[in-house]
Design brief:
By secondary structure, this protein is mostly beta strands. The chain contains no helices and eleven strands. A six-stranded antiparallel β-sheet has the order 1-2-5-10-7-8, with no helix packed on it. A five-stranded antiparallel β-sheet has the order 3-4-11-6-9, with no helix packed on it.
Length: 186
């Protein structure tokens, strides 16, 4: 099932010298569903994605008042989720993707994978992964991941992330977070 929220506002075409974030709502501070701009892909019935999550009882956003939350609420479900959005780029320009993620468990049970691709997601331009050891000091804290890439001949690209917890069979629900996603000229 594809769930999509698109902004109806228009934006100027970015220039290679612009330092503005090319991702819409990269800080997840949108207050209306129509302004979210992120899309979930291949959403499993046991996964709840909230692009406008407020601080909960244990986890404050990295910045601002809201964050993305991904809650795995079933035991033995698919336990993976992909989210992302397309953005406009300038041909043959170097960019940097950055995102902060929060993971409560590690030990190769749950892994983040980040991708930059053409707008159809058919051709990957750059990718990186975030893996935690079982007792990693970064667990339970926001961690920044960055990815450098060049737009090549593309003027529309996709930035997306997959959280894969298929190796983890939780006895209780788990919630992961992401915040402050950016794509800026390098």
């Amino acid at each position: 099932m594809l769930t999509s929220f698109q902004s109806t506002s228009t934006t100027a075409t970015p220039t290679a010298t612009s330092s503005a974030n090319l991702l819409k709502n990269g800080d997840f501070e949108a207050t209306k569903a129509g302004d979210v701009a992120w899309t979930t892909l291949d959403q499993d019935g046991g996964v709840v994605v909230n692009f406008m999550a407020k601080k909960d009882s244990t986890t404050a956003p990295h910045g601002g008042a809201q964050q993305l939350s991904i809650a795995f609420n079933t035991v033995g479900g698919k336990n993976d989720e992909t989210f992302g959005q397309t953005f406009t780029a300038v041909r043959a320009t170097n960019y940097k993707f950055s995102i902060f993620t929060f993971s409560p468990v590690g030990g190769d049970k749950c892994n983040w994978d980040f991708y930059i691709s053409d707008s159809s997601r058919a051709t990957t331009i750059a990718t990186t992964s975030l893996r935690y050891s079982a007792n990693d000091a970064a667990l339970g804290k926001y961690v920044q991941t960055t990815l450098a890439f060049n737009s090549g001949s593309n003027t529309t690209l996709a930035a997306y992330a997959t959280l894969d917890c298929t190796a983890y069979k939780p006895g209780t629900a788990l919630t992961f977070y992401a915040d402050d996603a950016t794509v800026t000229p390098a």
